[in-house]
Amino acid sequence: SPYISGSTTGIASSYGVGASSLAPAQTAAIGVLCTGITTQPAAAGYGDYLEIANLQPSIGTAGSVVTGTRICGAFFNAAATPQTTHATACSFAIPFKVGVHFDEEESIKASPIASPDLMKAENDPAATKGAGYGYSGFYLNYWQNAC
User: Fold this and answer.
1) Helix spans in the chain (H)
2) Which of 89, 109, 114, 134 has the fewest CB atoms nearer than 10 Å to its CB?
């Protein structure tokens, strides 16, 4: 979960890694959307992502193997569909580890960014309802539960 999770437009959270997964809104992105490649000029901002083995969208009592291990976007949320809020994600992988991939590019567009271009830019100044700036990185809370 993001350490700082704002709920006010214009105040960014402590998680922002890459562009939104949908054009019309700031959202989370997972799996194949987080390609590791930022294309220029400002065509797609998915070059940065976190990789968490066996990433789960919710807390549970038993793990199941999932293939979507990459997470990027303006919100930290591992749900299968794009979300507009932060949420706790889980992993049952042992050992627990977080991989980080940042490419050498940023996808920056002139402000204001029109809603059809939110998947192309990592710098939405509106930071809609606590979304993170896609170039800010991450500051996450994490904890371990007994198995």
Assistant:
1) none
2) 114
